[in-house]
């Protein structure tokens, strides 16, 4: 199958008659990839590089704070799921099958990026596998696929040791090499206790490397309850000691949702002190990370799709707003303020996840904007309408 065509990108100078966050209609001026001004909607004729929003809802571009764009089979014929259910079994199957599917490759990654864009995504934090078998080829493939967007689509990489760190000789050297690339902002890790069976060793190694190279950390932690909490405490201690405040994220963090309320409060307070953030993919069949507790403690949360049609699971549409729906629904959220909060998690409140201080429909912000036919953000969350227009860095990447 040939690689998909590069995206057609149109510079937009003005978005006319759109309703930011469901408010009154405005015109948004765009210059140099940024929002240059917002004013009440006028009724002048529409210019050639202007877009008539016809009263559509405008939201900041959707941020996918946890993706795996390097390992999907999207664009290939259907792949039957054949792995064992365990993390170890899935890792083994992926190692056995990926070559035959041409994974990793820029063409595969390009298909995934296209799907994310169609769903309104304008910024992505993606984990990309590194291991002795493929070295940094996955990172090179994602860089190549992202380059087709010439910076409009913001793709930031976590170098991810999916097959373990200490148990695979050479992985630490690969992490060090990856940290030197401009696209790589974080070093990953994976269940230090259950995969490497050396929680202190893995956490010490990855945090030391982050401190030395100046990149951040984004570690997958599925380990449950007290086993997970123990590793979170190790990470908190090293984050403080090595000056990594604000540069460390824990992905999944199932343990946080499984602890009793008092223990959870204590752990969340320590995360907030260390500036450690959390990301979730709103897994079904598990307790969700408790938003009210996270907000009360001041721990930032991001939402992501996780893997998308890959050898781990056939599921995934690439829609982070869909994950937001799942998170809200699974958590029993129904009040307007809670639904709005969840839409913000998928958009403006995820600024931190892609290294921004502001990601919103305000003057001076990057012009990352998604339009859809919805009454307000709550309606958009619940109904998941098609994305009518997706603008990233001032360029239209998708027009329905
Ligand atoms: Zn993941």
Keywords:
17 strands, alpha/beta, TIM Barrel, 9-stranded parallel sheet, 12 helices, Urease, subunit C, domain 1, 400 residues
**Name of the CATH class of the largest domain:** Alpha Beta
Q: Spell out the CATH superfamily of the largest domain.
A: Metal-dependent hydrolases
Instruction: Enter the CATH topology name of the largest domain.
Output: TIM Barrel
Task: Name the helicity range.
Answer: 25-40%
Number of domain modules: 2
Terminal-residue CA separation: 25 Å
Name of the CATH architecture of the largest domain? Alpha-Beta Barrel
Beta-strand segment tally: 17
Which molecules other than protein and nucleic acid are bound? zinc ion
Mean pLDDT score: 95
The biggest sheet, with number of strands, parallel, antiparallel or mixed sense and barrel status, is: 9 strands, parallel
Low-confidence stretches: none
**SSE arrangement, N to C:** EEEEEEHHEHEHEHEHEHHEHEEHHEHEE
Give me the Rg, rounded. Answer: 21 Å
The portion of residues forming beta strands comes to: 15-25%
What's the overall geometry? globular
Secondary structure class reads alpha/beta
Put simply, the count of helices is 12
Strand order of the largest sheet: 13-12-11-10-9-8-7-6-14
